[in-house]
Amino acid sequence: MSQSKIIVALDYPDANAALNMADQLDPSRCRLKIGKELFTRSGPEIVKTLQQKGFDIFLDLKYHDIPNTVAKACAAAADLGVWMMNVHTLGGPAMMSAAREAIGSHHDAPLLIGVTLLTSMDQQTFEAIGLEGTIPETVLRLAVMAADNGLDGVVCSAHETAMLKA
Fold it and tell me: How far apart are CA 56 and CA 65, in angstroms?
């Protein structure tokens, strides 16, 4: 398993393009992120193929559903042997807790991180979907909720990283 902090996003429309990029990378120097488009088109096979090449995989599917459904999806991702996966923190404490329980917390369990708010969210959209307060206040609340429910970290906008570190 690589200890690299570099994660290369394989935001490609198909497996061939993703594999062409992966062939140019050294698995000892980076990890790979597989998102919704590539996973939807190529399925678990792309994860397995890249793992056979020696890469750690961050499965970036941002699970957000009822607790039981998210728990089962996270267990399936863990069974694939991914290094890290994520959920939407807006799914709430029960969903996050179910996800954590489903994948376990032993040393070889995948990291489970929570997306606070989408990084594309602006104040106008925030208010349009019925959220109140400010984006930073909400991100902080969701990050604390993620920690309280056993998540290993959060994804947030660069604008909130200093606040969350403090």
Answer: 26
